[in-house]
Amino acid sequence: MAEIASYFDAVKERYGLTSDYALADKLGIAQPEANLMRRGLKIPKPELCIKIAKLLDRNPVELLLVAQKDKAPASAKQYWTLAQTAVDVMLHVPKHPKYLPKKVEAIGRELRQLESQTLVYEGAAANAEAVRLVETAERSIDAVMERWNIWKKGEALYPNYLLANQAAAKRGVAIRRLLVLSSEQMRDDSLVADAVEVMDNQQRAGIKIFFSFREELDRSPAFCRFEEDYRKQGAAHDINAAMFDGEILIFSQSYGQVPLGMVGKPTPITMISQLEITWKPEAIRDLNPAPLFDMTRYVFEYAGRHAFKAELARFQKAFP
Predict the structure, then answer these.
(1) Which of 18, 36, 152, 255 lies at 20 to 30 Å from 200 by C-alpha?
(2) Which of 122-126, 247-251, 271-275 tops mean pLDDT?
(3) pTM for the complete prediction?
(4) Domains plus CATH for the chain?
(5) Contacts for 34 with CB less than 8 Å, ≥ 6 apart
(6) Within its chain, how far is the Cα of 277 from the centroid?
(7) Is-contact 164 131, C-beta < 8 A?
């Protein structure tokens, strides 16, 4: 029986109509036609759907979609059901508080992006979405970060993203994170101290933290190809990327400095200005950070500050 038939019964009930003849007269159609439609054996035309909607104080779009779904072939019914659900949600979104329609609008933008297998977020939403991805990880997270200093206390990823990583590690997600350090950074004692602090924090959170030196990585053809693939994809100059469960990838497209504070001297905070999330098969294949952790000639697991300082001393002799 067609779903649209229930609306004919609703008209009869609302207006106290006791026969299909009375129903037909109310709708301005022939009695046999009204009988067939009420029994779900015939689908009304759009003009009649609109008339019934007005009689029932319903949105005409609702009845038009139901009628389309009823007459669609079985293979297409699921799409009309989806459209009906989406419209139903939109029709019942309260206008106040204003957060609600804006939230639904944001969800709509995300849904429209899904077909491209890519989602893009900007500003604070980018950082919030990164946290949500960590919360959905079930098995593994592999990450590489050249803008590693945004993990510092007071920066964009501290503490929310770090706490989300810690919670993931507690539920059994294997997290590996590689920090890429440059010779210029390592000539600055304060930045060396920052790197040690970041790695200590990661380790305390249950993350297997690794480090490498950029100038040594540049000697690796595999890393150079990896970097080139990220450039083609539109990644920022300093690669920050993470793979979740080997099936969905995030990476930064751009960064920005945001002044924090309206009284006194503002504190500059480095933010991810634009973040891309993708599950395109070719991106998952080419941009997976996991192989970097097998490059033991250039990539080292962090084993505490003393071992790190020894490795740093070796590097500084090679790259003074």
Answers:
(1) 255
(2) 247-251
(3) 0.72
(4) 5-89 (1.10.260), 118-318 (3.30.870.10)
(5) 8, 20, 21, 23, 24, 27
(6) 6
(7) yes
